[in-house]
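tl;dr need the bound structure. longer version: we got a ligand (guanosine-5'-triphosphate) that a collaborator sent over and nobodys looked at where it sits. i said id run it. heres the input, straight from their email, havent touched it
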Amino acid sequence: MGIFTSKSETPPPSPLLQQPWRKTTWGQMEEQMQFLQFVQPGSDAVSNIRIMLYGPVGAGKSSFINSVNSILQGRMAGEALADSVASSVSFTKKYTTYKMKKGRRGQFYPFIFNDIMGLEGQVGVCKKDIKLALKGHMREGYKFNPASPLSKDDAGFNPCPTPDDIVHVLVCVVPSPNTSQIPGDTMTQMRDIRLFASDRGIPQIAVITKIDEACPEVERDIRNVYKSKLLKKNMEDFSARLGIPMNCIFPVKNYHEETSLDDDVSLLILTALKQITDFGKDYIERM
Ligand SMILES: Nc1nc2c(ncn2[C@@H]2O[C@H](COP(=O)(O)OP(=O)(O)OP(=O)(O)O)[C@@H](O)[C@H]2O)c(=O)[nH]1
Ligand SMILES: [Mg+2]
């Protein structure tokens, strides 16, 4: 006997749009990486564009920094240690600045990343700490204490921040599979941080991570990123919840289990990095 098929059955709707909703030029990596040679802080008073990442615990903040560094070094790099055990407590405990080597002559790219502890109710970084860090009051190496924020008497407090110490671009990192499930109190903290940064004119970008986990079609082929209906909906929901426009939201898959680089994975990360450094430069020019 054959397999039953019914001609009247309508096939399920495709999880993919026919056309991508955002234009992407895949391939041509040499051209795509060229902007890195021209990144400039935009003022002589500032030596580096300071990029700060914030977001829920385990969102992929450290992995994003590692992924950028891996692309720049052309090999897997693991400096901003990421945690491989799912946990509700942040793995990153210190305020750390990451520089990335440029070539072999001891030079560095003119942008730096600050990795902070994840936001998570009472066990994550205090939003007050993030605000102090945005203003440049947090010294490198400060150990986060969820129970009490940085105070003026603390050795980790920088009383006189220079234009180099302040944050020039703020990046919100959230995982795609559960953008709608981010707890209300974490979302409230994120909105509060966003508004604080907006008041100070600090440009903001959101990086949506783990797109491979969110959509099987994207896991199968990352070039489906802007065709996936699910991912688009996740991004739209998140845009509405945080109040960040869609054109400031960048989906990425971080390098987290791979042993070699992949042009398509790298391209999405570089697209986010380009926007981040452009926004940082614009802010420094306006400062
Ligand atoms: N599938 C997938 N896993 C990822 C991705 N990015 C990060 N991960 C994994 O998610 C977990 C958490 O990543 P981290 O980079 O440590 O997250 P974090 O935001 O720095 O976390 P805390 O420092 O603890 O707040 C790790 O197991 C990573 O391997 C991604 O794009 N896709
Ligand atoms: Mg981390």
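gonna send this back to them w/ a short note. The mean pLDDT is 89.
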